[in-house]
Specification:
By secondary structure, this protein is of the alpha/beta class. The protein is built from 53 helices and 28 strands. Strands 15-16-14-17-18-13-19 form a seven-stranded parallel β-sheet. A six-stranded antiparallel beta barrel has the order 3-4-7-6-5-8. The protein has a five-stranded parallel β-sheet with strand order 20-26-25-23-24. The chain is globular. The chain starts with 15 loop residues before the first helix and ends in an 11-residue tail after the last helix. The model is unreliable at 1-8 and 1369-1440 (pLDDT under 50).
């Protein structure tokens, strides 16, 4: 195993002090800084040239210098506003560099150009000419290439699309050989027609410019090949050349991976044989070409992708075989006709000559001339007479032979290769920096990774890219877990050459023995074993709770087998800053899947209701399944003389179940690729990113429904009228008593001819028809629950769109009622289409539970609700909506209904045991109940229409005795119609009882809980809810069970990974080749934070954080944008509090990306303490921050200052902004931490989440001078800076306040100068409060500890750059397993506090306890940060 590659250096952003003292900043103040706009000098192009040659080119494109320029708004305020088509090369390059930097930092890019876009075509032309220039440096060429690629990847921006599409149209075929062009036209005759049409339309005056544009990409490739050929086989090599070549291949891959760009470009690429030239290049043979070769493999893959360039349709394996056969047979025909030397080749069958080895055998003896003649015959190279026109084409023997062989060799099926791929990562992939880059990815270079952009070639391409990225993101997490656990084990080399374990780890154990116990024969047609099983024995001599975790490993849990051969002697300390592999001597990693733990007889202990046997001793053996593909590969290597790694494993590693579902998801994606994916026709093109983005909108769907029952959506007629401002509302009655909900609406514009616009305008009429829901019975609980929310017009439009067939995207900013809209859509679908089933999918269990709690409050029969997956236990309802909870509900309901049947039987004096089963109850209803009712109804509603006395309705009613417990009187005796309706409602109640029992009859026939739960899922439930992860994990199980659904509603869609959004579409088998899905409703907000991708390279480079929801919005799919704010009050209070350095220190970074700011932490906690002292409830206050380091520091300060003080206590939550998305509280204290550089708050989505969590008050603690100058944050900070930047306190006002927020303060507010002032004021205020309690005054003497004494400690282990990831054990959403008493340094975990204030009667006790909560009792507060870094997993021989 090779050593870990050197980790690329972390790019350190320049600090504010450096920026302020910088020459660039001085120039910005004079010429373009927004805050000095009044004093700006005139534009000077010499300034642009000087900056470019000194600061950009002169610094060799230093990232730090470019960051300072970009942050100063150089592009927005100076470069672009002053650009003209005569601008200098330096001006154009400066714009290119600034744009590339914006893409690298992933901030908004095209805003500046959209305002003034007149000069963009000139700018783009200047870029194209510079790309082909030989006079500029390679670094500049690379920057231009990166910019060009960004333009091609921003096709949704009209500005870019208009320029780049001209470069890749059919007219670019002017650059290919005429004979090849003629061959293509013969294959695709319609393109010849288009070609001639283009030639006719060409303006002779513009022909020269048009020809130059059409030849551009061809010339660019020729220039690249010249650069590539200049790299020698040996000797020094320019890094700039290597980077240029790598970036060029990345550019070609991106062109090939999009259908609009590849359709004609692919032929040009093939015609100039760039792939073969790259294969034969010196760079591909050198060690510096490792990444180049990986990119070349990707380019080869896409150049031959299984798609028809003509139609864009996917090609099956059969189609690809036919194309391959036609190529080989055309070569054989050429050989037979022209080359007698190849007669044997010409007469052989295809399968015997299409491998590389066979082709080499046939072609190696041919001379250069014969090879050229064959290539010329196949239109691959120019003929001798045309050679001078195509002098770029290589014609040497090596090239010609490789060209013919690579073109005609059999290509392995992508699917076969995928099916033979091991799903567990090995050490070769886990530590390959080009494939799984380090966490500190800067974004400077390119990587051999697929990208998720706007469009995909086919569903296979879509799934494959997602498969690879999901696998690699999982691999990155696995790498972190392995490095963490193995470093804690601290393996050392003992004197006897064995491994000595210097530490211990919770998640890893040393293996005592490992043996492969079964290798089953391969299945027919496969090469791998059908099953490989092994036994692993470990010694669990650990704490009882950890032993229990190991013993609770379940079937299908994934573990890892690791071999380490350490070289460090005993006592060597592990250094987290050094590469991992050399320190621990890691040799190999293999995955396995647990089958079960073995009992004393060697049998697997099965999971089941029976208690597990108690096993003696500490040794435990697990039976595991190994990956069959991987085992076959390893055994092949053993047969070639390599070591058998299965005899060397010495560590067994497990992972947290929550993070360990990657294998099941990968198997699901692979299974989808092996099955005929049937996506609904109306969705197929939209998912791939093609066609009309509005094609699936409900107004364009053929099955649009004109009449819809909106049920209880509208509160009254006025609400209905205000909900459709553009429509005329017609009603059939003017009686206000009848104009009450529910309303059935008929839309006049549905089904009209779209071309007849005038008629359509006239038909913008809604006919509202109130209708009465028949009463369900005489009891109070029979009244249906009703909606109480006055929906806004946009919310009503979202509900209407969700009820119609098609794709509905609802964009809901924070607090606009997304969940309420979702619930109403579900309710309306349930009532309008009772036979249809709706699937609800969310990102998190928390969101699913919030949704379910609101669904339960509506008029939906709870027997039709089902919640799948773990997490239902967090539902804040007394009912259990899980599978088995619903089965128990049905069984209990059945008994309850049968008891009612028994009561009905007794009331009717019917003999026999009719309430024994659902079946007997059904017979009783048919023969006894229904017969009596029909007799009664015939009497009170005679067919001849004769009037019946009112009293008769009551007297003859047969079920008086049964309804004795109903509210009295049962019949009012006022009107005949009313009494008949009461009688009918009573019968409906009885009828409903028996219809429910008929539905429950299956539960009597099915005896096992599993069968009953399956029946419930497949037949009974109408609304089924699950998380996207559960859907991905259980897809195969659901499909096999016959699960069916008609509608999907997704909440939090913008937080769900692309692939996890797609999988729920395919949780059912197609019917007659079609998907039965009718509606897909996605609700989310792409302006808030995206899915958490822990690896920055996958997040930034591969764009893996882009959700399908965001991609559809970028594509231009119509959305409904909710606009009514319901979270924050209109008089929402907010203030930015400027926090300066404390003792000369602002932000600190004890470990990479572990940012802390002690001044802000102390200030936040001081304000929190003050709020508590004046009466604010703790549960209404949350403290948020943008970094994990600051979160830990604030918790430490709280533990010191007030955690155990009964008068103050802990706030509701202390966590990061990323983790708090989707939650809210009345008051938010927000710490932005950074004082040197803005950091990841430049991502506006994080700012949106941070600023929208508060309902009543938001207080932001930050360095104002840093954030006010950030271009992306200007809209928010311009409002914040308009208010005073110092905290103002109105004295002598307590919570809850009586003064209106707009009323003036009764006294002059106290202005707090800084953090220390606030901290001392809070202490004095606290002491005054205590003095009031005179009876315990003596006990309340305190020693005040100065602010700033909480020491900042180094976090000596891996820290993620991503604030959404927190790998320590005090994460808010994980159960804390370590008790504080186990380690006195670990602070008590933050927990929700009781909502009640401390009662006055308890104050005496409270003051008694206060001595224990004071800071002078705490030995060293800073220790808590370090103790968390080395928690109960920490190394230590005392724990052994």
């Amino acid at each position: 195993m090779s050593a870990t590659p050197a980790v690329p250096p972390k790019i350190v952003a320049p600090t504010v002090e450096q920026i302020n003292s910088d020459r660039i900043t001085e120039l910005a103040e004079e010429y373009w800084a927004p805050h000095s706009i009044q004093n700006h000098k005139q534009y000077d192009k010499k300034i642009v040239d000087d900056i470019y040659f000194q600061e950009i080119l002169g610094s060799n494109f230093s990232i730090r210098r470019i960051m300072v320029l970009e942050f100063s708004q150089y592009l927005e305020n100076y470069l672009w506003p002053n650009y003209t088509k005569d601008a200098s090369h330096a001006h154009m390059m400066s714009i290119v560099v600034m744009l590339n930097e914006k893409f690298r930092e992933r901030v908004q890019v095209w805003q500046a150009f959209k305002k003034e876009n007149d000069h963009f075509p000139d700018f783009f032309q200047q870029v194209l000419h510079a790309c082909l220039s030989d006079k500029i440096a390679l670094k500049e060429q690379t920057a231009l290439l990166v910019f060009l690629n960004h333009c091609f990847n921003s096709m949704e921006v009209a500005l870019c699309r208009d320029q780049v599409k001209r470069l890749v149209s059919l007219s670019m075929w002017i650059s290919i050989q005429p004979t090849r062009r003629e061959q293509e036209f013969k294959a695709y005759p319609k393109w010849r027609k288009y070609w001639r049409a283009i030639q006719r339309k060409d303006n002779p005056e513009q022909l020269e410019q048009l020809t130059w544009e059409r030849m551009f990409l061809h010339r660019l490739m020729l220039k690249f090949m010249t650069t590539l050929d200049s790299i020698p086989e040996e000797g020094d090599i320019s890094n700039d050349k290597v980077h240029y070549c790598e970036r060029f291949l990345e550019f070609l891959i991106d062109l090939e991976a999009l259908l609009p760009t590849r359709r004609f470009f692919n032929t040009v690429l093939d015609d100039c044989h760039l792939v073969v030239r790259c294969q034969l290049s010196a760079l591909s043979q050198r060690p510096e070409g490792h990444l180049f070769n990986q990119l070349l493999d990707m380019l080869k893959f896409y150049a031959r992708f299984e798609i028809s360039d003509e139609t864009g349709d996917p090609l099956t394996d059969h189609d690809m075989t036919q194309i391959h056969y036609s190529k080989i047979t055309s070569l054989q025909k050429a050989a037979f006709a022209k080359f007698p030397d190849l007669r044997n080749f010409a007469l052989a069958n295809v399968a015997s000559v299409d491998t590389r080895d066979k082709l080499i055998k046939h072609f190696k003896s041919l001379s250069k001339d014969k090879l050229r003649a064959i290539a010329n015959y196949l239109n691959l190279v120019p003929s001798p007479e045309n050679e001078h026109e195509f002098n770029w084409c290589r014609l040497d023997e090596e090239f010609l032979r490789e060209l013919l062989i690579s073109r005609h060799e059999r290509r392995a099926s992508q699917l076969e290769a995928l099916n033979e791929m091991p799903l567990y990562p090995t050490e070769e992939v886990i530590w390959d920096e080009n494939v799984v880059p380090t966490a500190y990815f800067s974004g400077e270079g390119c990587l051999a990774l697929p990208k998720l952009n706007l469009q995909f070639l086919t569903l296979h391409d879509y799934l494959l890219r997602n498969f690879n990225l999901f696998r690699l993101e999982s691999t990155y997490e696995i790498r972190q877990d392995i490095e963490d656990a193995v470093s804690r084990l601290c393996p050392w080399k003992a004197e006897d050459e064995t491994v000595y374990w210097g530490g211990w780890a919770r998640m890893a154990q040393a293996i005592l023995s490992f043996a492969v116990v079964e290798v089953a024969k391969p299945n027919i047609g496969e090469k791998r074993p059908s099953r490989v099983r092994a036994d692993v024995t470990v010694n669990l001599n650990v704490r009882p709770e950890i032993k229990a975790e190991w013993e609770n490993l379940r079937k299908h849990d994934v573990c890892f087998l690791i071999t380490v051969n350490p070289i460090n002697p005993i006592g060597t300390r592990y250094d987290y800053k050094q590469p991992f592999i050399p320190q621990v001597g890691l040799h190999s990693v293999r995955g396995c899947e647990v089958e079960g733990m073995l009992d004393t007889n060697g049998r697997v202990i099965e999971d089941g209701p029976e208690p597990r046997p108690n096993l003696p001793g500490d040794q435990r053996t697990y039976r595991v399944w190994l990956d069959c593909n991987q085992y076959r590969d390893d055994m092949n290597r053993v047969n070639q003389g390599d070591e058998d790694i299965y005899e060397t494993f010495n560590i067994l590693l497990r992972r947290k179940p929550k993070e360990n579902n990657f294998k099941a998801v990968l198997e699901t994606i692979r299974e989808l690729m092996n099955t005929e994916c049937v996506v609904p026709d109306w969705l197929h093109d939209i998912i791939l990113g093609y066609g009309d983005p509005g094609a699936a909108h409900y107004t364009r769907m053929p099955e649009q429904i004109p009449v819809m029952d909106f049920n209880d959506t509208f509160l009254d007629m006025d609400h209905l009228r205000s909900s459709f401002p553009e429509y005329q509302i017609k009603v059939n009655t003017d009686d206000p008593k009848k104009l009450v909900r529910p309303f059935r609406l008929t839309f006049g514009d549905v089904g009209s001819n779209e071309n007849e616009n005038d008629e359509k305008e006239q038909k913008k009429v809604i006919t509202a028809e109130p209708h009465v829901i028949p009463s369900r019975g005489p009891y109070v609980f029979n009244e249906p629950k009703k909606n109480t929310i006055p929906f806004t017009p946009t919310q009503v439009e979202a509900i209407r769109a969700g009820m119609q067939p098609g794709l509905t995207l609802v964009v809901g900013p924070p607090g606009t009622g997304k969940t309420d809209v979702a619930v109403q859509i579900i309710s309306n679908l349930y009532h309008n289409f009772p036979s249809q089933r709706t699937l609800i999918v969310t990102h998190s269990n928390q969101a699913l539970n919030q949704l379910f709690e609101k669904i339960v409050a509506l008029d939906i029969d709870e027997r039709h609700l089902l919640r799948l997956g773990h997490g239902e236990e967090a539902l804040e309802t007394e009912k259990d909506f899980s599978r088995y909870g619903r089965v128990n509900y049905v069984l209990a309901k059945r008994i309850s209904l049968l008891t009612e049947v028994q009561r009905l039987q007794e009331s009717l004096d019917v003999a026999g045991d009719v309430a024994y089963t659902c079946e007997t109850a059904g017979h009783f209803f048919l023969y006894q109940v229904l017969a009596r009712w029909e007799k009664y109804i015939n009497y009170v509603k005679p067919k001849n229409g004769k009037p019946v006395p009112i009293q008769t309705v009551c007297d003859d009613f047969p079920f008086h005795k049964f309804f004795e417990n109903a509210p009295k009187p049962l019949f009012k005796g006022v009107s005949y119609e009313e009494d008949v309706q009461i009688a009918e409602s009573c019968f409906r109640y009885i009828e409903r009882m028996f219809s429910e029992l008929e539905e429950f009859r299956a539960f009597e026939l099915l005896r096992s809980g599993l069968d009953r739960s399956k029946y419930l899922l497949v037949k009974e439930a109408k609304i089924i809810a699950m998380t996207c992860t559960h859907a991905a994990l259980k897809r195969k199980e659901l499909v096999d069970m016959g699960f069916k659904y008609d509608n999907i509603l997704m909440e939090e869609s913008a937080q769900i990974l692309e692939i996890e959004t797609f999988i729920p579409l395919l949780l059912q088998n197609p019917q007659d080749g079609y998907n039965r899905l009718k509606r897909w409703i996605m609700i989310g907000d792409h302006h808030q934070l995206p899915p958490v991708i822990k690896n920055m390279a996958f997040q930034k480079y591969s764009n893996m954080e882009q959700s399908l929801f965001t991609r559809l919005v970028r594509l231009g799919v119509p959305t409904v944008d909710l606009d009514g704010q319901g979270r924050a009050r209109p008089s929402y209070d907010f203030q930015l509090i400027d926090v300066q350095d404390f003792n000369g220190v602002g932000e600190s970074e004890p470990s990479p990306y572990f940012y802390q700011n002690l001044a802000e932490a102390e200030y936040c906690v001081a304000v929190y303490m003050y709020m508590r002292l004046i009466g604010y409830p703790a549960h209404k206050i949350s403290i948020l921050t943008t970094y994990n380091g600051q979160k830990h520091l604030i918790r430490d300060v709280i533990n010191i200052r007030c955690a155990d003080n009964p008068l103050i206590g802990r706030p509701h939550k202390v966590t990061t902004v990323d983790k708090y998305q989707g939650q809210q509280n009345d008051y938010i204290l927000l710490s932005l931490v950074r004082t040197k550089a803005v950091g990841h708050l430049r991502d506006v989505r994080r700012l949106v989440v941070a600023m929208s969590r508060a309902r009543l008050g938001l207080y932001i603690f930050a360095r104002a001078s840093l954030f006010q100058n950030c271009f992306e944050l200007t809209p928010a900070f311009s409002q914040l800076m308009a208010k005073p930047l110092q905290l103002h306190l109105v004295m002598n006002e307590l919570y809850p306040g009586e003064r209106h927020i707009s009323a003036p303060a009764p006294s002059q507010p106290m202005v707090v100068q800084d953090m220390a002032t606030m901290a001392n004021f809070v202490y004095n205020y606290y002491m005054e409060k205590v003095k009031v309690m005179k009876d315990v005054y003596a006990k309340s003497q305190k020693v005040w500890e100065e602010p700033g004494t909480c020491r900042v400690k180094k976090y000596d282990t891996f820290v993620s750059k991503h604030p959404g990831e927190d790998r320590d054990t005090d994460s808010e959403d994980e159960e804390e397993k370590t008790k504080p008493q186990d380690n006195p340094q670990i602070p008590v975990p933050i927990q929700d506090e009781p909502v009640e204030e401390t009662p006055v009667v308890q104050i005496t006790e409270a003051v008694d306890q206060m001595d224990t909560a004071e800071p002078d009792e705490t030995e060293d507060a800073g220790e808590s940060s370090e103790s968390r870094a080395n928690d109960d997993d920490a190394m230590g021989e005392n724990e052994q």
